[in-house]
Amino acid sequence: MASEGVSFLLEKVNGLLKHYIDLIGNAEDELLGLKSDLDTLKSFLADAAGKPNKGEVFRRAERKMREVIYQVEDTLDTCLTASAAKAKKNPIRRLALPSYSLAKEVKSLRESKVKEIIQIAYGELGKMLIGGGSGSTGEDSGTTVTE
Fold first, then answer.
1. Which residues form a coiled coil (predicted)?
2. 140 belongs to a structural domain
């Protein structure tokens, strides 16, 4: 289920912000933004958990959420591994090492993927859950969920 993936990624981001501040440098603002986005998704999924008849739109959106979560996790791991390797080579300059790549990658993922998921969740799916409909199509609003 997507909610476990969101929770796991939230824990990872919180851990980065708490324990690896020396490696994330100027990416802190983007990670805080990602944390906020993930909190929004987690809240939506918690609200949706008790609703009956979620329909195919919801299931496709959950699959897309999982894909995005994996992509964000892989990006964080890749950037942090690169930052740690640079820090190991030059421990004296560890705090001065740029983390531009991490900030840039997180910002890109938030803008291109995570915000899209939030829009889907609170757009078509929000209407479906509030209205109690089945949500089997996204034709009314023009929102499309692609796999």
1. none
2. no
Question: What kind and span of H or E run contains 61?
Answer: helix 55-89
3-class secondary structure, 125: helix
Residue in the structure block whose two tokens are 């939230």:
10
Rounded Cα distance, 24 and 49, in Å? 34
Q: Which two tokens stand for residue 134?
A: 């089945």
Rounded to the nearest 10 degrees, the angle between the axes of helix 100-109 and helix 28-49 is 30
Residue-range definition of the domain harbouring residue 48: 1-130
Tally of domains in the chain = 1
Per the confidence metrics, is the pTM higher than 0.90?
Answer: no
Rounded distance, CA 75 to CA 77, Å?
5
Answer yes or no: is 141 within a domain: no
